[in-house]
Amino acid sequence: MFPQRLDSPLAYEIAKAMMDGFNRHYRLFRSESARAKHRFETADWHGQQRAQRERIEFYDLRVRECSTRLEREFKAGEQGMDVWQQVKLHYIGLLVDHHQPELAETFFNSVTTKMLHRSYFQNDFIFVRPAVSTEYIENAEQRPTYRAYYPTRATLGAVLLQLLQDFDLQRAFADLPRDIACVQAALQQQLGEVTLRANFQIQVLSGLFFRNKGAYVCGKLINGFQEHPFALPILHDAEGRLVIDAALFGEDDMLLLFSFARAYFMVDMEIPSAYVQFLRSMMPRKPRNEIYNALGLAKQGKTLFYRDLLQHQRHSSDKFRIAPGIKGMVMLVFDMPSFPYVFKLIKDYYPPQKDTSREQIKAKYLLVKQHDRVGRMADTLEYSGVALPRARFDDAVIAEIEKFAPSQLEISDRDADGQQEVVIQHVYIERRMIPLNIYLQEAFDAGPDDRRARAQIERVVLEYGNAIKDLVAANIFPGDMLWKNFGVTRHGKVVFYDYDEIEYLTDCNFRKLPQPRTEEEEMSGEIWYKVGPKDVFPETFGPFLLGNPLVREAFMRHHAELLEPSFWQAHKERIQAGYVHDVFPYEQDKRFNPGR
Ligand SMILES: Nc1ncnc2c1ncn2[C@@H]1O[C@H](COP(=O)(O)OP(=O)(O)OP(=O)(O)O)[C@@H](O)[C@H]1O
């Protein structure tokens, strides 16, 4: 297989053009991310959201651009295997000393799979695993990946001040010494009365993390063998001056900040793998694919996820099964018990009350991907042509797909290794959660006298209402608010995952139920009033949601306003007036001054 000689000048030209294509992509991606700082400084919130949305499209545009060029200039798709093998080797050569080799390899995979027929590139041409290491890549630029500061207890305040000033934010703080004093107190509390060791230091990533109306300093405090990850959110106060809003500590706070249910950060990074490595040291349990995703490098996230999935298959023996819970009407959902994700296919057939189509459902999922997910909507990875071993499927799953989504299924020995494979045309993959109906049922089963179960119901109903309120503030009407459409995460957060009926709040009409005018209307079991396609009657939510008395009691105590049309209408009007809501990826009690 390995070519003995690199004797094709054309192969070099193709590799070079491919590399130019990637470099252009990363340059554009990076400068868009870098501009987030200016948008933050000038409070351009709509611009920030637009850029977050548009940046998602960059990758596919550049892949298309590059394959068109390769086709036009080199007829690359028609070249033989010998040329393509040399292209790959030249490309590897060009990656030596490159600062984003792992992303460039993925770009190579995207372009080649787009240009070459599947049977042609079976794993010989693409990078099935990295060929070039990302370890110890150094930055020749002025700005290193992270900066280290060496305070003593006496100089901690002054050092923190310097650390903040080094970010060179072009907007005044309301009172930086006041904020620094709060951070200092929080750091000291975190450290406790321990002896400061020789290596005592603070390391911070040199790029700020921007998202929505916030900027975040991310770093860690190191003392001896102890490491304390932290993040400092910087916001604008009511007068538009900067404030440090909180000091977040520990892996759990970081995981909430970097959650899969939030929009991607904008960070100006020369060496993304070094950022990932640093962030991984702050959150050792978070898979690298999710960290790449959180940084907006979604394609790399997808690549790594797929490699993780294949590796998991090799080191496990359980089977894909129908996901626990109430089956979806439009989505067919399966999972593998040992793997914490679910796989969701759009069905070919759904009941008549679901007046939708594959295209419309895909558009809703895309809407969610591009929207700020405010910690309340699960992110999805979208794949086409996923091949999984047939032997690893329960027959019930195959029967279900054959019945409801036959257009999505092919069973064949595609890679000619003697094993049957299930090839799924199109699938969304997302983090598995505990469906809220199952979570509640477990508490109901424990009985009303069980204090823990009652507390569990109270907490999760409160969380459920908060989830809806966060979605509302972000201009999302979930459509179908039944318990089964929400999941509970490892951190006890309630997250929405059923997107087929989602709408922008600003597109909905929130109406009061009309009063019946005649006895006939009053007694009618049917809906006697006219209902437009975007009409919503919040007063009707109760009967669907609040059958259980414990649930009802908790809901009415915390969230009765969700049953009032005026609540929804007021939010709609605020959003229409251009207001961009603050989203806090941490609890209010973590804020230094919640009233600010
Ligand atoms: N992320 C997830 N984690 C765990 N279970 C999930 C997840 N997503 C979906 N499920 C399970 O699959 C079922 C169907 O999923 P989903 O609600 O997305 O489908 P749907 O067809 O849109 O539903 P509906 O019929 O309400 O429109 C859920 O009720 C739940 O039991």
TrEMBL record:
Its EC number is 2.7.11.5, 3.1.3.-. Keywords: ATP-binding, Cytoplasm, Glyoxylate bypass, Hydrolase, Kinase, Nucleotide-binding, Protein phosphatase, Serine/threonine-protein kinase, Transferase, Tricarboxylic acid cycle. Pfam families: AceK_kinase, AceK_regulatory. ATP binds at A323, P324, G325, I326, K327, G328, M329, K344. GO terms for molecular function: [isocitrate dehydrogenase (NADP+)] kinase activity; hydrolase activity. It is found in: Cytoplasm. Residues 318-588 form the Isocitrate dehydrogenase kinase/phosphatase (AceK) kinase domain. Residues 15-317 form the Isocitrate dehydrogenase kinase/phosphatase (AceK) regulatory domain. Its main location: cytoplasm. It comes from the Bacteria. The active site is at D379. It catalyses: L-seryl-[isocitrate dehydrogenase] + ATP = O-phospho-L-seryl-[isocitrate dehydrogenase] + ADP + H(+). Bifunctional enzyme which can phosphorylate or dephosphorylate isocitrate dehydrogenase (IDH) on a specific serine residue. This is a regulatory mechanism which enables bacteria to bypass the Krebs cycle via the glyoxylate shunt in response to the source of carbon. When bacteria are grown on glucose, IDH is fully active and unphosphorylated, but when grown on acetate or ethanol, the activity of IDH declines drastically concomitant with its phosphorylation. Belongs to the AceK family. This is Isocitrate dehydrogenase kinase/phosphatase. It comes from Rhodoferax ferrireducens. The lineage of its organism: Bacteria, Pseudomonadati, Pseudomonadota, Betaproteobacteria, Burkholderiales. The gene is aceK.
